[in-house]
Design a protein that fits this description.
With 255 residues, the protein is α/β, with parallel strands linked by helices. The protein has helices spanning 17-24, 58-63, 67-85, 92-107, 113-123, 140-154, 170-181, 194-200, 219-254; strands at 6-10, 43-46, 158-162, 186-190, 203-208, 211-216. Helix content is 51%, strand content 12%. Helix 7 links the parallel strand 3 and strand 4.
């Protein structure tokens, strides 16, 4: 999966799409083969079913996605306090470390994180009227929106999405598609929404009979390439059948 990839994972029900996503996420181990992840890359996985296992409110749960940023900010404050104690004799190493943390904080959107968090919740239909609701009182569909919000807020380098639009209404789908189009990482998505796959995918990976076949382009391009591939396979099959028949006639004739 390349950094700019938008991969649509397709296949019949029961083909193993969710199982493959779970292996990519590191939840399930493959029977054979290995999972290789670039050093430092983070993977975010949106499951199909989410249950409330916390007594937090919607806003408090969403804010857990900012914990890495909060930890980064705490380390910056500690260094600031250390510098303030003796600002005339700041070691170069300490100053360099602070600059690194600050740049990392900026790259992660730390200064606008709280505003973006609230904008993400609103975009997914979780307006201020829901922020103080306990998760335990939410339906499965609303819990999925909270999980999706947390993933988008955390900005992992790789997003693994299992039917992300199933529980979204039309305004939320439009907002989500706009967010996805500008997302800085790579995305692997399972979806039965062909229009969605056409708009957002630059590769389609078809899972069938325990084999994965990759096609360039969106869903429409995949349909055309797959039809051509099946025609070619059918032609090879007919040619093979003719060759077998000719050899059988030769064997029969010459014993």
């Amino acid at each position: 999966v390349r950094p700019d990839d938008r991969v649509g994972l397709v296949g019949r029900n029961g083909a193993g799409k969710t199982t493959l996503l779970r292996m990519l996420a590191g939840i399930d181990a493959p029977d054979t083969g290995t999972r290789v992840l670039r050093r430092g890359a983070r993977v975010g996985y949106l499951r199909q079913e989410v249950s409330a296992v916390s007594d937090r409110t919607v806003l408090a749960e969403a804010e857990t996605a900012l914990e890495p940023l909060r930890a980064l900010e705490r380390r910056m404050r500690e260094i600031e306090e250390e510098i303030a104690r003796d600002h005339e004799h700041v070691p170069d190493e300490l100053a360099s470390r602070y600059d690194e943390l600050r740049h990392e904080f900026e790259r992660a959107g730390g200064f606008s994180a709280d505003a973006e968090l609230r904008a993400t919740l609103v975009g997914l239909g979780l307006g201020p009227e829901k922020w103080e609701q306990p998760l335990a009182k939410l339906s499965g569909g609303w819990l999925m929106r909270v999980e999706l919000a947390k993933l988008l807020i955390a900005r992992p380098e790789i997003l693994l999405l299992d039917e992300p639009t199933n529980h979204l209404d039309l305004p939320s789908i439009r907002w989500f598609e706009g967010m996805l189009a500008a997302y800085p990482g790579s995305v692997v998505v399972v979806s039965h929404d062909r229009v969605f796959l056409d708009r957002h995918c630059n590769r389609i990976a078809e899972l069938s009979a325990s084999r994965l076949t990759s096609y360039r382009g969106n869903y429409s391009a995949y349909v055309e390439q797959r039809a051509l591939r099946l025609d070619e396979a059918d032609a090879r099959r007919r040619n093979l059948e003719r060759e077998i028949a000719e050899k059988e006639r030769f064997v029969t004739r010459f014993k």
